[in-house]
Amino acid sequence: MLGWMARPTRHFWKNHLGQDWEARLMYPDLWKIISDRDLITDEEIWALRYHLRRELVEFARKRLREQFQRSGGDGARVFDRILSTDALTIGFARRFATYKRATLFFRDLEQAAAIFRDPQRPVQVIFSGKAHPRDDKGKEFIQRIVEMTKRNEFFGKVIFLETICGRA
User: Fold this and answer.
1) Which of 11, 19, 62, 117 has its CA 20 to 30 A from that of 75?
2) pTM of structure
């Protein structure tokens, strides 16, 4: 499982807060313990965050390789340069419907390109999901996102992971 509550996260909080930490999430005493003590350092939180992002990037690279091979690619592409473990990572993994406005990011291509090429504040986006079978506009959104992933200014920083068997 990827995400904020992945196995490494659960292990991290169990080590710092005890076995029953999940059962106590809604109780103020748990949060008071965290805020009153120097129980967890900023460095520990950032290390966990970096670890999770590294796992996400590796997962995405692996899935992209698989997608490429399924589509008849020869595996010659270099996937190790796709995505960064040091960039702000935005995830959009859901049903593609027009009201969710997944393509809004690319409304102004010049501005979007400027955001993605800023070396001081690197940004990347991982899209995944599918449209309802009868939602042609949602399918068009996915096609537009896939087109964006192929443009030079977005390549390796905007990716689309195909949904396999109902999962991203």
Assistant:
1) 117
2) 0.81
70-115: pLDDT as tens digits:
877 765 567 778 999 999 999 988 888 888 888 888 999 999 999 9
Q: Is the pLDDT of residue 37 over 80?
A: no
Q: Structural domain boundaries of the chain?
A: 7-40, 77-161
Spatial distance between the Cα atoms of 58 and 79, rounded to a whole number of angstroms: 10
116-152 as b/e, with b when 16 or more CB fall inside 10 Å?
Answer: beeeeeebbbbbbbbbeeebeebeebbeebeebbeee
In order of 61, 86, 114, the CA distances from 120 in angstroms are 23, 11, 12
Tokens of 144: 């537009």
Q: Report the distance separating Cα 120 and Cα 123, nearest Å.
A: 10
